[in-house]
């Protein structure tokens, strides 16, 4: 028998510990490790029925987008650093 998805619009999902209300500290996403830790928390909250499947799915999608942004910005920074090193260090020399 297929499990029915029950829509939960109650205020229970808005509890601060459920990630729906004000937190004492905001989550900072500076690197992929931060995204991984947040997604682990989302998975644990979903497993404990603290957040809804819809919210977990939305957060998963947004983390996926953020992961790509972090990867792209890291790559851009690395390319810029290499370009500066080539301009300043080589002065036409080859290895």
User: Strand count, sense and closure of the main sheet?
Assistant: none
Q: How many whole angstroms does the radius of gyration measure?
A: 21 Å
What is the number of strand segments?
A: 0
Mean pLDDT, rounded to whole units?
81
Beta fraction: under 5%
Our count of helices gives 2
Shape designation: elongated
What is the chain-wise order of helices and strands?
A: HH
The level of helicity is 55-70%
Provide a compact summary of the structure.
The chain has 95 residues and is mainly alpha-helical. It has 2 helices and no strands.
What would you say this structure looks like, in words?
With 95 residues, this protein is mainly α. The protein has a domain at 29-90. The protein is built from 2 helices and no strands. Helix 1 (32-47) packs antiparallel against helix 2 (53-90). The longest helix is centred in the last third of the chain and has 38 residues, at 53-90. It is elongated. It starts with 31 loop residues before the first helix and ends in a 5-residue tail after the last helix.
């Amino acid at each position: 028998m297929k499990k029915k998805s029950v829509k939960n619009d109650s205020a229970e999902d808005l509890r601060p510990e459920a990630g729906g209300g004000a937190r004492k500290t905001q989550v900072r996403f500076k690197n992929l490790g931060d995204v991984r830790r947040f997604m682990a928390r989302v998975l644990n909250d979903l497993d404990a029925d603290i957040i809804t499947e819809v919210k977990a799915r939305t957060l998963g999608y947004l983390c996926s987008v953020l992961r790509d942004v972090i990867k792209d910005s890291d790559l851009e920074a690395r390319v810029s650093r290499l370009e500066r090193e080539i301009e300043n260090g080589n002065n036409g020399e080859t290895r």
